[in-house]
Amino acid sequence: MVDQLQDLSGTTYERTRLRDARFTWINVAGADVRHADLRDVRMRGVELQDVEIDGELQNVVVNGVDIAPLVEAEMARQDPDYARMKPQDADGFREAWQILEGRWAATVERARSLDPDLLHERVDEEWSFTETLRHLCYATDAWVNRVYLGNRDPWSPLDLPFDTLRDLAWPYEKQVRPSLDEVLELRADRQTTVRRVLAALTDERLTETTTPVEGEGWPPPDSYEVSEVLGIVVNEEWHHRRYAERDLAVLESRARAEGDAGKPA
Fold first, then answer.
1. DSSP alpha helices (H): ranges in the chain?
2. Opening angle at CA 145, ends 56 and 194, nearest 5
3. Cβ-based burial of 143 (10 A; exposed 0-12, middle 13-18, buried ≥19)
């Protein structure tokens, strides 16, 4: 318990555990919170204005209203294909993947219009475009090749796991800067694998569980329901494309501004 004001403005907290902590009379204006576990958090007497939240929302009650279903409905209204990213049967998964491949093809073409160096540039400390594609290759290896197909060692050196994953079982290169075509070659292979898995998928298979995962790596050794395994991959593909499109818009704007600055007055 601290009785006097502590000014910790500008402090950076990384890998900090604050479970069951209590905050009273706290000023977090301008704070930047990333990769945070905010489950079971209760806030009273708060002021939320000009706040941006991007993450998974479940049972988020604001002034007595669960806003999570409202957000989901609005996202589906803005983009009807979003509702198809929560498939309930085998045909739904095949449809979702077809949509995702089409969307990603358009996003890749958009990225090709930029200077290749910009595809390695992070926007607001988020993954670069090539890093995003590398992470999706990792997600396919983790959940489809490893969990669903039972490959104990599916990893590629270009796979990029999420930042908080440590003690990996394979040597991956976090700082490597592969060309877009190099990443897309690996990506095409992983997409083909998913396509093959979904082509053989049945409604009955969706309700089954996988053989327990073996070997080191994420997710932890366990059995998983097939619908969960494939649903995670669909979710990763949808949202990371959304993030990529958001950041490509920033890079395009920056490129235009730099181009205009170089023109004679």
1. 68-78, 90-112, 129-140, 180-199, 203-206, 226-261
2. 75
3. buried
44-76 pLDDT per residue, tens: 888 888 888 888 888 999 999 999 999 999 999
Fold of 89-252: Four Helix Bundle (Hemerythrin (Met), subunit A) (1.20.120)
Query: Where along the chain do its domains lie?
Result: 89-252
Which residues fall within 8 angstroms of residue 213, CB to CB, at 6 or more apart? 146, 147, 219, 220, 221, 222, 223, 224
Q: What is the pTM of this model?
A: 0.84
Using alpha carbons, list the distances in angstroms from residue 199 to 86, 140, 164.
18, 16, 33
Tokens 């004001």 map to which residue?
A: 5
**Six token digits for residue 44:** 């009273």
